[in-house]
Amino acid sequence: MYNTLDSHGRISRWIMFLSEFRFEIRHKKGKDNAAADFLSRPEFIAAQLQNATTKYSKPSLEQIKDALKGKGITNSVEALTRYPFTMAVADQTSVTVIKYLCQLFSIFGNPNLIKCDNGSCFQSQILKRFLIKECVKIEFNVPHQPEWMGLVERMNRTIRYAISKTCYPDYSQWEEALRQSVVGIRQRTSASTGYSPYYLMFGVEATLILGHELINKADHNSRDVELDENLLARVENERQSVSATCVPHFVVGDLVMILDYKIRKKSVRTKTDPRYKGPYEIQEKITHNLYKVKNEKGKEHTYHISRLFEYIQRHRDSHLSAGTLYGNVSQANKKDNSL
């Protein structure tokens, strides 16, 4: 160890800690060590590690269909602290969503903005009137762009896998497993922020059962320091949105093709299926690289620029309509057709 030429990492720490002692380390194979240390080989170690390598797969909807009994999970994530808030619901109607939001608002207060997908429960007029009454703005995600809601999608994946590990192989108690899983996620230290979502939300670490004391004395000075550290942690972890350096630009009136969303979903498709739809005409440019386009039937859609491609006409003074190519026909072609 002392004769190594390039000591770094753990070897360097060993040399520093053991430099005051004189010793020599010799390796002895396990098969030659008949009197092995008992503490280094606990009893029944193989039996204890039998289930340590069990692979828990994410349960499919078919596997837990009977256990769900028609219920579902509504999940929301606070954008800055990444604090999850979930609830098992009987349906996905607007009335159920309003009850869920009322419970959320009663604990954390009314937020300024809610971002959600384009589900029918969020598009209802009942929910919109409720949010107007609560002075909360609502912003819908771009259709067929789930990556824009990546924070919630990743949390759904984490919760789903946690329920699988907790309930495997019986999913009848999945609601209790949901509560336990969410509590663990809130108290787990995030690798990206360095703090737990619980700490970033409330300013103190969660009290575990083992560390709970019957008598807790209030320490206001420590509380002030914790609040300052919490505020500093929030400011340090705030990220600025960075756009791509090279983004295509379209003006009103340009013709574009739209990439089929099924390709990005990696669904099974035949080679003969078209990859693009269109052409569409640019009507308006919106913020965040969104464009409002109109198809040949006059119906308007909103797409992100990542799905737009320039439409190049193959024939001069021609256009596509209903899958048929029309254009100027020469006199010679007309004579040939008449014959």
UniProtKB/TrEMBL annotation:
GO molecular function: nucleic acid binding
InterPro entries per UniProt: Integrase_cat-core, Retrovirus_Pol_polyprotein, RNaseH-like_sf, RNaseH_sf
Single GO cellular component term: nucleus
Domain Integrase catalytic: 38-205
GO biological process, one term: DNA integration
PANTHER family found in the cross-reference section: PROTEIN CBG26694, PROTEIN NYNRIN-LIKE
Name listed for the protein in its UniProt record: Pol polyprotein
